[in-house]
Design goal:
Layout (H helix, E strand, L loop, with lengths): L18 H5 L46 E3 L5 E3 L2 H11 L2 H14 L1 H5 L3 H4 L3 H18 L2 H10 L14 H11 L4 H14 L2 H13 L3 H13 L1 H4 L6 E3 L4 H4 L8 E3 L2 H8 L6 H10 L8 H12 L4 H7 L7 H5 L6 H18 L1
Antiparallel strand pairs: 1-2, 3-4
Helix pairs in contact: 2-3, 3-6, 6-7, 9-10, 9-16, 10-11, 10-16
Amino acid sequence: MVKLCSDFLLIKCLGSSAWPERCLGKAKVAGSIPAQGFLFRPKESHFEEIDEQVSDKVILPKSVRILPNSVRTNSDTCVQIDLVGYQEYLGKNFNKHTAKARYSYSIKYYKVLTNGDASSLVVLSYDKRMHVMKALATLSKFLGCYDKWKDIVQNYHLRWSDRSNGAGTSQGLEIFHKIYGNDNYQEMIIQLKDACLKLDKKYSSVLLYCALTGLRPAEACSSLVLLKERREDYLAKDNKLLEHFRFPSVFLRRTKNAYISIVSESLLELGAHSSPVSYNSLRLALRRKEIKMNISICRKIYATFLRNEGVEQEMIDLLQGRIPKSVFVRHYYRPDPSRFDEIREKLTKLHDLLVN
């Protein structure tokens, strides 16, 4: 009797005389082509029990070969995962960055689905647990075992959101530190201005564009491209709004959206003299200059500045692509268009603050 402790160890014994050599550290390639097998030299501790008597019968007649792109669900079965198909599935349903994160977490935590043990998720931080849970939910839908995933979530009392908003909860305390921590509004302004001084103009212009439109970094990079290549379709006729909603494949996604941005003459001039760059190149430029700044602070500066200037939260949410679930916003809030002109003047003030 041989009991294996590794999920990925392949031992296939073909006769009584061959099994000691194969099982005690001398496993060989299965054929002349290396792809047919692999070398593995286990330690004796990998085997919990080996009978002293060896019969002439085939050892491990039900041994299972672990093929690439497969997941073992128990000792007797093997569920195949078509990783190429899974990547295609992710590519069709998520953007590039989200698909990459879903795939990475799925590969790392797939055993939660196969053995039903989610204890490893309970000890994770709130944000990371959310990423892992989303990845496993996506993988379970692809494999057709979503019901099993829902049972795991229920059995381990996993929550998709922090139901309590109190500061005593881990999520509430984390939010408190973000608000009260070192990255306050003035500190973010200093970081952004310092980064713009150190970076080349083509990169600093993107950061300013982020801060003046409230867009996410990747959205800002795409916006600058559209402003140059499809200005007539993108910019409203009165030259006062960027209409992101006209390009749903770029700005409208499952959870993160952008609908409109208020623009001023200074912002249009900034876009006209900017060289389109990708989000990845912007991130790498910051790394080369050893600038330890999170690009997302540009979006935070935009929201905090407008709120300090007296702009209502509902308007800020709208300009940053958020539609609250409140009854007031969905059924009653209808701002006057003149409000956009007032915000435009405030954004001109923000531009002067950042460039001077």
